[in-house]
Design a protein that fits this description.
heterodimer, A: 296 residues, alpha/beta, elongated, B: 524 residues, mainly alpha, 2 domains, globular
């Protein structure tokens, strides 16, 4: 498998603010790669560096085998982009903007454009100044998704979309993945990333703090268990790997890491179980665990 | 109007630097103009002669107005500085009112305010109040400034109040204009168009002051202010006209505002084409700048025809002694030649303004976030840069060419030769290019100081118009590129400065292109 995006030790400062601080990001061909982080973690800065809009102070960034800063024409021919903050030319219609961006990219696909307009239920004859936020987002999405790009850089692509349109977007993203395209999906909406991504990179204060598949990440983290038990299961109190233990009458709740899951479940079983709920860590919990104590 | 106090404070907080800088400039300009007069004319004979000469030149009258009493102490200096003050005041109040009404509405920030207990009319009211206070303060402080400079008290009071009157007139007109369209730009086109029309009306009125056509002056708020005749007859009653306009226009604006939806204009947005044909950065740049350029082009065709048509009336406007005086003062060239030279310089300032405006569009594309989307396609920075730069350079060049060619064509009888009369417009092109290139450098290297282009143009215009009057040292006056282009047909054509300026412009464009290619985008 080839690597489509590869950055090494990327750094970028704006004045005294260090936006990127040694960022190593790697995206493989054909995957949907979730790029997770809260506001201000450096997601948009990273994407701007990948697009050659910003010049990194240090480190390297390669996109589709080319240098992100110097090989712009070659790279941009093969990528499509949805900016995080979509602003459109107020006096052009949505249709005009979609066609403009398609032509500038060099691969306007009329059939696909028509199909996407229909799926996203977008009226292309309105002036951009009269579109709502969600409709502006749709214009940017149709413009990008109608292309035959190999790599899609999507910066919070579903911001402002209603749940129905979010579902349409997810379908289209899956279709693209099925065709072997690569998607870098930047977001702080965890459910979306969870639903679509093969692998996830979590960014914090300009650094990637964790990379892996959702399954791999879950293995590294705790499972939460709540059980209604007849006994007390006292061995849980001293068991390594068990945290957040609470007892409320017969209800017992705790979290346990993957290595001790076996022993913990056994301890509960010994006490006699009436009911047992076992939840794998949600992405939310993975995410929060990376952010405990706030941003450095 | 509930909540207007808070909105006035917000508007003042956002505009205080702009307002402060402009007002101080007006005051200093007025003061130094008054101070300069005694140093220019040592005797009252010289003053009368200078005023007579100014009256004799249609170009001067067309720009600054006619002097009714040639013994006027203010005279040509007061007329000049008054017109500059008036225009500055008009631009300032237009900016204040437009920014805090339609500008806020289009950006969507009003929605945020609209959800708070703020009255429907509060934004319009707050913008108007800030602009009116600005106009009043500016006029009132100008009065002691020119008195301190040595001008008579009575005339000075009227001089300051006339400036306030211009402010009130344009507050009134702008408050209506911002109701017309849902687009900030279109509203701007309406009000700046109105400013242009009022200027042309008073220009026609001044040039034909002693004939029936002179009455059109009374259709123009700028004309009303001039007709106060500070130092030149001193009459206060025309000051009532701006008040009357204000009293009529503001209720109209309030009525329009209270009837329409937030964010809407009087004219609804029409649906547009579902598909587009724009496919290149140049095509996009042209589409964005097209309407602006066409407006300028129409203006320049009309002005060219107008300027050309009135060349011959100059002779009729001049009395025998006045023409004799002008010959003695000017020394070279015929009156027609002096007039053509003047028109060439003024038109060059206008074309430069178009060019800088076109350059600034490149910058707003960046700050509004559009540029990011465009550069994510295979469009390179240089191509994007070049397309807007091309429109700036070609556009300003076309404007000058059209003005020269139309003016020469409109001057039929008594022409000293078609090309000879068309060429003054072309002679200043290299200076225009240098100015546009400077604006490009500012946008490329100092994007946060992108207004430098405008500031430098304002400085150059002031140097050209007031430098000689204020007796600035010649090296200061030579900073302006327009000081180097030959003033044909009064002066002989000389190619050296033209070529040097062109080379400077080219070098600046290259420097700007390098800067734009290397810096981070977007800088907001």
């Amino acid at each position: 498998m080839t690597t489509v995006i590869e950055t090494h030790n990327l750094a970028k400062s704006f004045g005294r603010t260090r936006a990127l601080d040694g960022l190593d990001l790697s995206v493989e061909e054909g995957e949907v790669h979730g790029f997770l982080g809260p506001n201000g973690a450096g997601k948009t800065t990273t994407i701007r560096v990948l697009l050659g809009l910003l010049k990194a102070d240090a480190g390297t960034a390669s996109v589709l085998g080319g240098n992100a800063w110097t090989d712009i024409e070659e790279i941009h021919r093969r990528i499509a982009y949805v900016p995080g903050d979509v602003t459109l030319w107020p006096n052009l219609t949505g249709g005009e903007v979609i066609d403009l961006l398609g032509r500038l990219r060099g691969d306007l696909d009329k059939d696909r454009r028509a199909l996407l307009l229909e799926r996203f239920d977008l009226d292309p004859t309105k002036r951009c100044r009269s579109y709502s936020k969600g409709n502006r987002q749709k214009v940017a999405l149709v413009a990008a998704l109608a292309s035959r790009a190999e790599l899609f850089l999507l910066d919070e692509p579903t911001a402002g979309l209603d749940p129905l349109m979010e579902a349409v977007f997810s379908d289209v993203a899956r279709e693209l993945k099925g065709e072997g395209r690569t998607i870098l999906l930047s977001s702080h909406i965890l459910s979306e990333v969870e639903r679509l991504s093969d692998r996830i990179s979590i960014i914090r204060a300009g650094r990637i703090v964790e990379v892996g598949t959702l399954d791999e990440m879950r293995k590294l983290h705790t499972t939460s268990i709540s059980a209604s038990v007849r006994g007390l299961a006292p061995s849980l109190d001293t068991m390594p790997g068990v945290t957040n233990l609470t007892r409320d009458g017969r209800l017992i709740r705790f979290s346990v890491d993957a290595d001790n899951l076996d022993a913990a479940v056994a301890a509960v079983a010994v006490a006699g179980v009436d009911s047992l709920v076992c939840e794998p860590p949600t992405l939310e919990e993975l995410f929060l665990s990376k952010y405990e104590g706030g941003v450095r | 109007m509930t909540g207007w106090r808070g909105l006035v404070r917000l508007a003042w907080r956002r505009d205080r630097i702009m307002i402060g800088v402009v007002l101080v400039s007006i005051w200093l300009l007025s003061y130094y103009s008054a101070v300069a007069v005694p140093t220019l004319y040592s005797s009252s004979d010289q003053l009368v002669a200078a005023n007579a000469a100014a009256n004799a030149s249609t170009g001067v009258v067309a720009m600054y107005g006619h002097i009714y009493d040639t013994a006027s102490v203010g005279g040509v200096a007061a007329n000049k500085v008054a017109m500059l003050d008036f225009l500055t005041m008009a631009f300032l109040v237009i900016a204040i009112v437009r920014r805090h009404t339609r500008g806020e509405e289009e950006s969507g920030r009003f929605e945020l305010l609209g959800a708070t207990p703020v009255g429907r009319l509060a934004p319009l009211g707050a913008a108007t109040i800030l602009a009116v206070v600005t106009a009043v303060v500016s006029g009132l402080v100008t009065i002691p400034a020119v008195i301190a400079g040595g001008w008579p008290v009575g005339g000075s009071v009227l001089f300051g109040l006339a400036q306030t009157g211009v402010g009130l007139s344009f507050v009134a007109l702008t408050s209506v204009a911002v109701q017309l369209s849902s687009s900030y730009r279109v509203c701007g086109a309406w009000i700046f168009g109105a400013l242009g029309v009022t200027f042309v009306l008073r220009m026609i009125g001044d040039v034909s002051w002693d004939r029936a056509a002179g009455v059109v002056t009374w259709l123009s708020p700028l004309g009303w202010a001039q007709q106060v005749r500070y130092y030149d007859g001193d009459r206060a009653w025309p000051l009532l006209l701006p008040l009357a306009l204000f009293a009529v226009a503001l209720p109209v604006a309030a009525w329009l505002q209270s009837r329409r939806d937030l964010g809407a204009g009087l004219l609804p947005d029409r649906l547009g084409p579902p598909t587009g044909r724009i496919g290149t950065p140049l095509g996009l740049a042209w589409r964005l700048q097209r309407s602006g350029f066409v407006g300028w082009l129409i203006t320049y065709v009309i002005l060219g025809a107008l300027f050309g048509a009135i060349v011959d009336t100059i002779g009729g406007l001049m009395s025998g002694p006045a023409s004799e005086m002008l010959r003695k003062l000017g020394g070279v060239g015929t009156f027609n030649d002096i007039y053509l030279t003047l028109i060439g310089v003024i038109a060059a300032f206008g074309a430069t303004a178009f060019g800088i405006g076109a350059v600034m569009r490149l910058r707003t594309e960046e700050s509004s976030g559009h540029l990011e989307t465009v550069l994510a396609t295979r469009v390179t920075r240089l191509r994007f840069f070049a397309s807007h730069a091309l429109i700036a350079f070609v556009g300003s060049t076309v404007l000058m060419a059209v003005l020269g060619l139309v003016m020469a064509a409109a001057h039929r009888t008594g022409s000293s030769g078609y090309w000879r009369e068309a060429s003054p417009a072309f002679a200043h092109l290299p200076a225009v290019w240098v100015m546009v290139a400077v604006a490009l450098v500012a946008v490329a290297w100092l994007p946060r100081l992108d207004w430098l282009g405008w500031a430098i143009l304002a400085g150059v215009v002031l140097l050209g118009e007031l430098g000689p009057l204020m007796g600035l040292p010649s090296w200061v006056q030579k900073v302006s590129p327009f000081a180097h282009t030959p003033k044909i047909p009064v002066e002989a054509m000389s190619w050296t400065p033209e070529l040097v300026l062109t080379a400077v412009a080219v070098a600046l464009v290259v420097a700007a292109a390098v800067g734009f290619r290397e810096r981070g985008i977007p800088v907001t």
